[in-house]
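**User:**
My hope is that you can spare some time for a protein that puzzles me. This is the protein in question:
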Amino acid sequence: MDLLRNLLMAVLITLLFSIFGVVFDARLVKIAAIRGNNRRTNVIVIIIISTVAVFYKFFFIEQFSWWSFSLLLVLILTIGIHKVDFQDAWRRDVYYSKSKEYYDYSNLSELQEDTDFPIWLPAYIPDNLPFCKGRIADYANGDQNVMLVYSEPGNSRYPKRRSLSIQMTMTDEIISSDSIARQLKVTALDIREIQVRGKAGYAYWTRSVSTGNSAYLVWREEEFNFSLSLSGAWPQPDESNPHDLDNLLLMIAGSLQIES
């Protein structure tokens, strides 16, 4: 009878602890503006830890201090699983709140008519990479980003088609190795300082299983930040050859010009 009573009490308290953990988790997500995919994992771990802690209490120890210890354990694990960095969370909020409106284009001429500044177009593009699409992003702070995508013909659902992305952003923000390393969407690897069109720039690569690793070249010129990237079935940058595509990116960057 005592075993059944302890078992029922353990299940009830586990449920209460789990609800407490989930509510706290939701509050933490709201406060820290977390937009990750850890919430489901966090809830599962909270339930498991609560179950283990409660059963351990009922069948092994009887100290009253266990209650405060278990509550503290749930709190610590909830925060720890998220790996909350409030500075990054704030910066992520700034990123999402900056975005105002996006406009997609399949015609390059129409895109040029709607930008706030003349577009820099590449005079040199690798073979078999026609213009695919463009996008204008207007931000609430007045910045404007223009992206041009050149991609080899084929099934658009095939993620490893060779593609070239050219982005230019009219902004006051300065590009630095620190700003590259702090990017939210990707992890920049092997950041290397490099001269681009006579300006200080940086080359790096990012890892991706679905689309293949990508090579990047970024620099600031006049009032614009430029970013060039190659993704898809190019020679893959990796730890052994992190900068094999740098020369190709430099050739494309060197050919950028404003068409009159």
Q: What stands out?
A: Residues 2-84 form one domain. Residues 115 and 136 are 7 Å apart (CA to CA). Helices lie at 2-32, 39-60, 65-82, 86-98, 108-114, 177-181, 246-254. The beta strands are 99-105, 120-122, 131-139, 144-151, 163-170, 189-196, 199-206, 214-221, 224-231, 256-258.
